[in-house]
Amino acid sequence: MLGNILMAIQIFLSIVMIIVVLPQQSKQNQPQVFIEDSSSQAYFKPKGKEAFLNKMTKIVSILFFINAIALVMVMK
């Protein structure tokens, strides 16, 4: 019974992870900016949609792995 519930949660988390990861742009697509003057370098943080997707990716992946470990322990 508990194994079935954990398996359903695992499937749901995997679908959510796919939905969260796919819209993100890869680092290769972003232009690389090299500034020679070290004093004028600015730290650019992701904003808006990118920041939200980054946070959601971290949260969902942590939940995914915790659930996977729990699923292994229950099925043992």
Descriptive terms for the model:
single chain; 76 residues; mainly alpha; 2 helices; 0% strand; transmembrane helix; protein-transporting ATPase activity; Protein-export membrane protein SecG; protein transport; translocation
Description:
The chain is built from two helices and no strands. The two termini are 14 Å apart. The chain has helices at 2-21, 49-75. It is elongated. It is mostly helical and 76 residues long. It has a domain at 1-20 and 48-75. This is Protein-export membrane protein SecG. It is a multi-pass membrane protein. Involved in protein export. Participates in an early event of protein translocation. InterPro entries: SecG. GO terms for molecular function: protein-transporting ATPase activity.
Distance between the termini: 14 Å
Low-confidence stretches: none
Give a count of the beta strands, DSSP E runs of length 2 or more: 0
Report the β-strand fraction as a percent range.
Answer: under 5%
Average pLDDT taken over every residue: 84
Helix/strand/pairing class, anyone? Answer: mainly alpha
The helix content is 55-70%
Number of helical stretches of at least 4 residues: 2
Gross morphology: elongated
Output the helix-strand order.
HH
Largest sheet: none
Radius of gyration: 18 Å
